[in-house]
Amino acid sequence: MTPKVAVVLAGGLGSRISAVADGKPKILLDVAGKPFLRRKLDELARNGVTGALLLLGYGAEQVTQWLNTNPSPIAVACIVDGPTLQGTGGALVDALPLLPELFFLTYGDSLLELDYGKLAGRVSGDAARRSCLAVTKPQVFMDGRCNTAVRGGRVVAHSKVERTADMHWLDYGLSLLRKTHLRQFTTATRPLDLSVLYEELSRDDKLLAHDTIEPYWEIGTPESLAYVRQLFDEIGPFV
Question: What is the pLDDT tens value at each position of the chain, 239 positions in all?
């Protein structure tokens, strides 16, 4: 059974894209006539998700105002990072009391073609009850700095700092996580990056890998935003 709740990381400052954002958070930038947030919510709904928890930071008031004045295909709740930034991993760990045992995690600046149910299938068939990370080879506008090593269907190494020769994959932007695996980080020093959580889970053999070639689109830089806008304008929004 596919989990019904997803966490969306959408609290970044968006410093790389600030020159073209006109003061808006990335998740509200227009793509083919819709704010990116609406396209992300549509993606979640299409995959059977019925509730999303947005972890917000920069531009949180703009996001909550948009949610209050626009219909959503699914239920949405928000948590705003406080004056002391917790980091992507810290914000997630702080949200654990609100989450079910099994939930999806994705990013607020990417659109994914991967069927979420494929991760659910990987986890349901795993006797060791691991979590699961979707991984892929680098695509357009990615810098090629692969951060994940995969062996035997498992993530055996993950790091944004200590890259090794066997790291041929990148985080695709979707994971299926077990809350029990993350409770160990509740007392970790903040800010805490999500990559540290993945790194520790891989060391403890708690992280399956789902290797995919499905396309994805991200708007983290002016170049990638322009690419997605042009693509959608030319062939129509297909996500």
Answer: 789 999 999 987 667 887 777 889 999 999 989 999 999 999 999 999 999 999 999 899 999 999 999 999 999 999 998 878 899 999 999 999 999 999 999 999 999 999 999 999 999 989 999 999 999 988 655 556 799 999 999 999 999 999 898 999 999 999 999 999 999 999 999 999 999 999 999 999 999 999 999 999 999 899 999 999 998 888 765 55
Enter the pTM of the model.
0.95
Measured from the Cβ of residue 238, the count of other Cβ atoms closer than 10 Å reads: 11
The yes or no reply on domain 5-235 and CATH 3.90.550.10 is: yes
Q: Which residue has the tokens 């999500």?
A: 194
User: What is the distance in angstroms between the CA of the first residue and the CA of the last residue of the chain?
Assistant: 23
Name which of 97, 102, 114, 96 is nearest 177 in CA terms: 102
